[in-house]
Amino acid sequence: MKAAVLIGILTVLLVVAVVLALRTWAGLGDVAIGVHGALALAFGVVMTLLLGGGLMFLVFYSSRRGYDDLAQESRHRPGAASSEEAGSATRRSSKSSGSGTER
Question: Of 5, 58, 79, 81, which has the fewest CB atoms closer than 10 Å, so is most exposed?
């Protein structure tokens, strides 16, 4: 149910944005866009979509690999060492304890 409402709201927002863009474009009157302008506009739209898709990919990749968890753990603990310092401290303590198991 929540997903249907969200999709409905986003669809309405998309339709409103497209209608406003078309009205603005039509309201420009005699402004003509040449071939170079149309190519530049198309290139800008494609590159913007690729950039947005690439950034979303990085967000999901980072989340699934657990990189976000490390950042949040160190942020919520005052005086917490960075993940590199914590990793080297763990390796040192396991070597000094003589347990023989690597973490």
Answer: 79
